[in-house]
Amino acid sequence: MKTQRTMVKTFTKVKLKEQKSDFAYWQTQPVEKRLATLEQIRCEYHAWKHDSQPRFQRVVSIIKRKYCVTNDDN
Q1: Which residue, 40, 44, 23, 20, is CA-closest to 32?
Q2: Quick check: 30 and 38 in contact, CB under 8 A?
Q3: How far apart are CA 54 and CA 39, in angstroms?
Q4: pLDDT tens digit string along 10-69?
């Protein structure tokens, strides 16, 4: 037998200047969760704004170079 679940809507009306900051809550969360949430927000923004997944604009190559040090004190 299925039981019907109900959700109680709860809210508190406060003035904009009196609302609490989320900073304390996010400081209690582990770094992995904060980064995962940030990535989720970023993906949702790109899907909303650009209607596509973000991609790299250019391919970047990093090369290691040997540097030759010369003494030009002559």
Answers
A1: 40
A2: no
A3: 12
A4: 888 989 888 888 888 899 999 999 999 999 998 888 887 777 666 666 777 777 777 766
Rounded to an integer, what distance in angstroms lies between the CA atom of residue 22 and that of residue 27? 9
Helix (H, G, I), strand (E, B) or coil at 36: helix
Whole-angstrom Cα distance, residue 15 to residue 1?
Answer: 45
Please give the Cα distance from 71 to 4 (Å, whole number): 83
User: What pLDDT was estimated at residue 56?
Assistant: 65
As a residue count, the chain comes to 74
The rounded distance, in Å, linking the Cα atoms of 63 and 68 is 16
